[in-house]
Structure to design on (671 residues):
């Protein structure tokens, strides 16, 4: 990755998380008949930093590696290569015992509130479990803490001895958020926290997340495929395509001046809530399908769907360069030349 | 009269051990020829059960207990199962949300396409194959010959949905029911599929009944919109009126809470509370516990679905019972 980004990072005290050239390859070779090794490059060389108190949005379509990246940051997967530093500690080198200790500092909220809560545990026990496991509090104090957490996320405290199935999707997601908050983490990775919810509930959860961030100075990594939600909650946004970041910048710059052709296509694919404008954006649609990450296109991975691709794009991998302060793009060309 | 399908007072109830669940509770609407009608609503509002009832695909313990579905002079709730089978796939066809589960995983794409043509159009195998490959090309699948010989798992989600559309349109149906056709797809693929559906229905003059929770998709392709809440129609209007001037507080809330790329200041608009459980509906208007402008009467009595003056747009809300007062309210809100 660039020297520019790296040197930026080194003299920066505000950063909480720093990823350096992180790669995760899954071995998908046919073990019986083939000697050739084949890898699915889910995350293919990602470097980024996350500042304290900010929300970094990660968007991309299915198979772009955004969830794998979230799992790598959480230490649920070991990277094939690269470093993941949380306040200077490399999480990839920690053993299980130390990682468990460190885990109280970073937590996760999952997509599916139906499968991420143990159906045989009561709400109280679900939220109390991290506090008990990490031996933070017990007895009366534990009880008070759990009830406070339930209030924080807008759950009625009288429901504390109910089971998850007695709650609706939105309320279950609130339980998941309370559980993630229990250990007062510094970083919360939210992996598609609203995509399984109904429209009217989505905004409730987004509002809750923003309010909690203000109250507890949380740092979020918000992974989602829906750009409107990411736009609402994020300070900076990384756009991923087939395992790499193609564009990384502040929210304002990304929407005012998107520089990567993929980002532009993604923006114009979003339906607008105004039937009088229908059909206006049809020309910018991205053609074709997302290629398989096992066998991605050569050169720039987006070249086979890019309306502006040239021969150079088919051969050379573009570098991830800073086009304007804080705005990184991985494309051979400037969008103004195209 | 240009009506293709007319649903009248349709009631589909599910008789479970824990009591009767009125999933569809007196739904009436009609679809004109060549028109795209969308039913929007959140999970559990009865939009999918409505479409399954039209196709008579509701399984036990569900049952159509009342109402009629008029299609080309027949009442589909009354015809025999044999007649119904000639309607399904031939005159009304359906595409589903998850194309992987609606395609047979152990039969090649081509054979699945041929089967419909052989069954409904009585084509020969050779002719069916030719027609199938032509259909695959029509839905924008390159290398139709190769895909014809593939299995469903070899295709991507977008491709599978294209195959489903090819299957659904192969008998040139008069009505295509699309149940959340793009929900499982990525946005760039969704845009492609919507464009394709728009083009094909224009070419074939097919009417579409689109079932969706996504108002963005509705704004892109629908002509008329029906908003459902808790088993009932709460508002029906043409797409332009609905988006420019939504009447029912639920429609307004739904539009306000749909995330857009606009800049938001502070908190997002939401509809407070949760969708009521279908086995335990509130008294009066089903929406009143979540409604920001609920009055006393809303808690006691269910409002009727009323035509608004001089239009065929309808709304079910006490605010519009006295129309002038209602419009005043809508302006203030």
């Amino acid at each position: 990755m660039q020297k520019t980004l790296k040197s930026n990072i080194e003299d920066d005290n505000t950063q909480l998380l720093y990823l350096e050239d992180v790669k995760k390859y899954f071995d998908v070779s046919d073990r019986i008949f083939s000697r050739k090794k084949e890898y699915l490059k889910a995350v293919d060389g990602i470097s980024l930093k996350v500042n304290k108190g900010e929300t970094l949005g990660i968007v991309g379509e299915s198979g772009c590696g955004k969830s794998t990246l979230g799992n790598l940051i959480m230490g649920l997967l070991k990277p094939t290569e690269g470093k993941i530093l949380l306040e200077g500690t490399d999480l990839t080198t920690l053993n299980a015992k130390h990682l468990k200790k460190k885990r109280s500092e970073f937590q996760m909220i999952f997509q599916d509130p139906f499968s991420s809560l143990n159906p045989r545990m009561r709400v109280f026990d679900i939220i109390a479990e991290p506090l008990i496991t990490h031996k933070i509090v017990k007895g009366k104090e534990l009880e008070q803490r759990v009830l406070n957490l339930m209030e924080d996320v807008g759950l009625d405290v009288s429901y504390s001895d109910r089971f998850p199935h007695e709650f609706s999707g939105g309320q279950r997601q609130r339980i998941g958020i309370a559980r993630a908050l229990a250990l007062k983490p510094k970083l919360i990775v939210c992996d598609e926290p609203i995509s399984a919810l109904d429209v009217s509930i989505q905004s409730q959860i987004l509002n809750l997340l923003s309010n909690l961030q203000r109250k507890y100075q949380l740092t979020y990594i918000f992974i989602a495929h829906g750009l409107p939600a990411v736009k609402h909650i994020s300070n900076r946004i990384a756009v991923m395509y087939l395992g790499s970041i193609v564009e990384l910048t502040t929210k304002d710059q990304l929407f005012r001046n998107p520089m990567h052709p993929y980002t532009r296509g993604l923006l114009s694919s979003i339906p607008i809530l105004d039937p009088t404008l229908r059909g206006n954006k049809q020309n910018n649609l991205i053609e074709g399908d997302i290629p398989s990450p096992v066998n991605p296109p050569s050169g720039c991975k987006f070249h086979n769907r890019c309306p502006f691709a040239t021969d150079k794009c088919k051969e050379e991998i573009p570098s991830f360069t800073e086009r304007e302060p804080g705005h990184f793009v991985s494309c051979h060309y400037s969008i103004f030349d195209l | 009269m240009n009506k293709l399908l007319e649903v009248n007072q349709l009631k589909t109830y599910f008789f479970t051990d824990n009591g009767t669940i009125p999933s569809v509770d007196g739904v009436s609407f009609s679809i004109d020829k060549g028109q795209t009608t969308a039913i929007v609503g959140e999970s559990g509002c009865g939009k999918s059960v409505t479409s399954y009832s039209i196709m008579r695909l509701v399984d036990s313990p569900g049952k159509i207990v009342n109402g009629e579905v008029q299609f080309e002079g027949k009442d589909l709730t009354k015809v025999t199962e044999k007649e119904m089978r000639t309607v399904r796939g031939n005159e009304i066809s359906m595409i589903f949300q998850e194309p992987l589960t609606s395609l047979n995983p152990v039969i090649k794409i081509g054979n699945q396409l041929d089967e419909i043509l052989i069954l409904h159009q009585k084509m020969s195998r050779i002719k069916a194959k030719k027609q199938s490959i032509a259909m695959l090309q029509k839905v924008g699948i390159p290398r139709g010959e190769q895909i014809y010989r593939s299995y469903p798992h070899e295709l991507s989600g977008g491709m599978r949905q294209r195959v489903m559309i090819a299957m659904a349109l192969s008998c040139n149906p008069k009505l295509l029911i699309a149940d959340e056709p793009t929900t499982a797809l990525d946005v760039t693929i969704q845009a492609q599929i919507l464009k394709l559906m728009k083009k094909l229905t224009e070419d074939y003059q097919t009417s579409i009944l689109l079932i969706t929770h996504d108002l963005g998709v509705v704004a892109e392709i629908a002509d008329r919109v029906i908003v459902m809440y808790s088993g009932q129609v709460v508002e029906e209007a043409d797409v332009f009126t609905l988006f420019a001037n939504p009447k029912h507080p639920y429609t307004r809330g739904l539009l306000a809470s749909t995330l857009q790329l606009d800049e938001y200041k502070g908190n997002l608009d939401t509809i407070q509370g949760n969708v009521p459980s279908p086995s335990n509906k509130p008294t009066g208007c089903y929406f009143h516990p979540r409604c920001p402008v609920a009055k006393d009467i809303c808690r006691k009595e269910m409002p009727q679905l009323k035509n608004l003056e001089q239009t065929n747009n309808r709304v079910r809300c006490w605010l519009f019972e006295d129309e002038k007062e209602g419009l005043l309210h809508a302006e203030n809100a």
About this structure: Chain A has eleven helices and twelve strands. The longest helix of chain A spans residues 199-216.
